[in-house]
Amino acid sequence: MTIKYQSQKIAQYFYTFAIILFAVQVLVGLVAAIQFLKPDIAILSFATIRTLHINALVVWLLAGLMGATYYVVPEESETELWNYPIALFQFWATVVAVTAVVVGYIVMGIFPQANISVLGTLVLNEGREYIEAPRWADVLIVVSVLLFLFNMFMTMLKTKKWTAIQGVLLTGLVFLALMYLPGMFYSKNMVKDQFWWWWVIHLWVEGSWEVIAGALLAFMLMKTIGAKREVLEKWMYIEVGLVLFTGILGTGHHYYFIGTPKYWWWVGGFFSSLEPVPLLLMVWDAFRTTREARNVTNKVGLFYTVAHAIFNFVGAGLWGVIHTLPQVNQWTHGTQITTAHGHLAFYGAYVLLIMAMIYVTLPSMRGVKEFKTSRAYQAFWWMTISMVFIVLTITGAGMVQVYMERLMGLDYVAVKANYNLWFWIIRAIFGVGFLVGTLIFVYDYFRLGKDQGLQKT
Ligand code: HEM
Ligand code: HEM
Ligand SMILES: [Fe+2]
Q1: Relative to the CA of 428, which ligand 2 atom is closest?
Q2: Residue range 351-371, pLDDT digits in tens
Q3: Is the CB of 22 under 6 A from ligand 2?
């Protein structure tokens, strides 16, 4: 198996960058977990470590999505990329900007005064969770994403082959780019500020990213099983249609207690409760297609694809729906229940998605038909079992927190330091397990196709 178009190889650059950041993200996540037990373990404080953890997560997932798109679009359009040098430039610009932002966070962690204000914007850290990147970096990100999208559209225009998969994929990406914009202006009114902030955070992961996931799911099922395009595309339309219908109005589940009008209780509660439905359809889609499979060409790729569909449903759908009604959320809002859901949703929906795309597309980029798969399975089990236990642990911590803090009225710190201590210890232990899985994956990524005695095609 080899790639059809040489320019698809650009995907590997993005994958490599993504994977390095992934390792960093997990490593600092573990440091954050240990800081719950020993706050002064690192030079950087919990606040900085946490920022690094979640920003690295978002950035590496975006890099992974870009890599995946660079692979899919030439394949679907049946042509080389419109402009390879621009793609390469866009890659290096992204790396430089992200590195500068990370260095900025670290500098600010050590010298908080360094985050000075120039022309009304802060130069190192803007301070809104997940999108802390300063304004100058926002501008670079927008330029980079525009270059990326332009290149994609020009590639499609070359052959004018508008397949449904790449149409939906690019629609998702345009939506993603547009939804970055509400995060670029801010209001001194906290209610308004939070209102727009959720457009980025929520409409990304429960809107545009899920649309992209729907398109990639169809692509991966087609690649690994050779499933029929027409059937996959039909299901993809239903899935992404429902994702948008429930997800857009589902934004209301973040507007219950932040000063927005009361009608959001009804809108948010109702529509977000329906959000698991399209995610369940995706699971069903994956199973139905797999059952009909005659010749599976890439078993690991398929394994990760199905795992992604399942954990997308469990993490986002189930762990989301449990706290999505205002009657429940008034107790659980902003507790460890939220953190538990955040972990399983991101892991299931997007970490496994990028890993699946890597296992589906990397063999062809490395020019191998068969590769040693044992490490891929080991990585999966180390990560998944550890993540499940991390999530169960912090769900437990969240239940204790809700009960003691919000029903019994104990202090936040008293609950955190005393009653939840064992949960933090167990989380840290499984954090080590997760790191082991990540390192196996990183190693496997660099080794894939390079082991002795395997046939090359
Ligand atoms: C892949 C999709 C999803 C991802 C990655 C995701 C991730 C997250 C994250 C990280 C947060 C915490 C945000 C913060 O820092 O305050 C959050 C909050 C929340 N999510 Fe999700 N989520 C997803 C899907 C869903 C779905 C489908 C539902 C409902 C069915 C849901 C319900 C909620 C609710 C109610 C909150 C607010 C929790 C609170 O009040 O503290 N999420 N989500
Ligand atoms: C790929 C795997 C991971 C993903 C997707 C992930 C995702 C996230 C997200 C979305 C948040 C913010 C949650 C919120 O505020 O609601 C977060 C916070 C955090 N994560 Fe992770 N994480 C991962 C791995 C880890 C690991 C292995 C550990 C170590 C045990 C860890 C420890 C933490 C800690 C301690 C926080 C701060 C929680 C708090 O503020 O209470 N994470 N992570
Ligand atoms: Fe949401």
Answers
A1: 30
A2: 999 999 999 999 999 999 889
A3: no
0.85 surpassed by pTM: yes
Atom 33 of ligand 1, residue of closest alpha carbon: 320
Largest CA distance in the chain: 66
Do 297 and 154 sit in the same domain of this protein?
no
Residue of 48, 53, 346, 392 with the most ligand 2 atoms within 8 Å of its CB, for mutation: 53
pLDDT digits over 389-443, tens only? 999 999 999 999 999 999 999 999 999 999 999 999 999 999 999 999 999 999 9
Assess whether 80 and 172 both reside in one domain. no
- Atom 27 (ligand 2) nearest CA: 431
Question: Do 288 and 204 share a structural domain?
Answer: yes
To test ligand 1's pocket by mutation, which of 176, 244, 312, 341 has the most ligand atoms within 8 angstroms of CB?
341
Residue 456 lies in a domain: no
Q: Which residues contact 294 (CB under 8 A, 6 or more apart)?
A: 226
- Domain assignment of residue 457, yes or no: no
What mean pLDDT is predicted for residues 335-358? 98
Q: Ligand 2 within 6 A of 375 CB?
A: no
Residues 27 and 138 in one domain: yes
Last residue of a domain, one of 318, 350, 370: 370
Q: Which domain holds residue 32?
A: 1-111+119-162
